[in-house]
């Protein structure tokens, strides 16, 4: 709704201060797929809540630029299975639509020039966390993989046999000795 990728935490009892005006929503039932709170199933009729601002909810959100990546399972630090830290847990990326532009964005996030190669099919082993991203389609210029077109977070049609990997290049040298 506000361009964030998820919630880190929520708080009750006006932890971020009391709001003003009419309280219009009480205990909404949301699946997480809604684009705004008014699409959630209200437990009570909109506009009649019986609530005061002492019960206002607050949310801490995760920005797209806050996504972190790492490479796991490679022979050196510049290659491996792509894992993304999402809401405190490391997870993987599915290979549907994965290509050179996507791999380049990941490598640049890690401080490398670009990707020399990319892989599908769990070439660096099967991940064990959630599958965080699927259907990733980067233009190649994005500063963070969170800015690329993709399916919703943790929405996928694959398993860990489709985890992606990359081999990153630094200053024209694809094979750093470590």
From TrEMBL:
Top-rank taxon, per record: Eukaryota
One Pfam family cited in the UniProt record for this chain: SRCR
Recorded GO CC terms: membrane
InterPro entries xref list: SRCR (IPR001190), SRCR-like_dom_sf (IPR036772)
SMART domains given in the database record: SR
Span of domain SRCR: 1-62, 69-169
Keyword annotations of the record: Disulfide bond, Glycoprotein
Cystine residue pairs: 30-40, 94-158, 107-168, 138-148
Annotated protein name in UniProt: SRCR domain-containing protein
Species this chain originates from: Strongylocentrotus purpuratus (Purple sea urchin)
Lineage of source species: Eukaryota, Metazoa, Echinodermata, Eleutherozoa, Echinozoa
């Amino acid at each position: 709704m506000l361009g964030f990728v998820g919630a880190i935490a929520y708080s009750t009892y006006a932890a971020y201060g009391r709001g003003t005006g009419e309280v219009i929503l009480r205990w909404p039932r949301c699946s997480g797929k809604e684009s705004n709170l008014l699409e959630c199933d209200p437990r009570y009729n909109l506009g009649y809540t019986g609530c005061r601002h002492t019960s206002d909810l607050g949310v801490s959100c995760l920005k797209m630029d806050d996504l972190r990546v790492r490479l796991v399972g490679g022979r050196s630090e510049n290659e491996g299975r792509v894992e993304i830290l999402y809401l405190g847990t490391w997870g993987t990326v599915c290979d549907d639509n994965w290509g050179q532009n996507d791999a380049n964005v990941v490598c640049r996030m890690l401080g490398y020039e670009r990707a020399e190669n990319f892989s599908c099919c769990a070439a660096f082993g099967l991940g064990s966390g959630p599958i965080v991203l699927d259907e990733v389609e980067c233009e190649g210029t994005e500063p963070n993989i969170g800015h690329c077109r993709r399916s919703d977070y943790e929405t996928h049609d694959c398993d860990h046999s489709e985890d992606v990997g990359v081999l990153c290049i630094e200053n024209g040298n694809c094979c750093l000795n470590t």
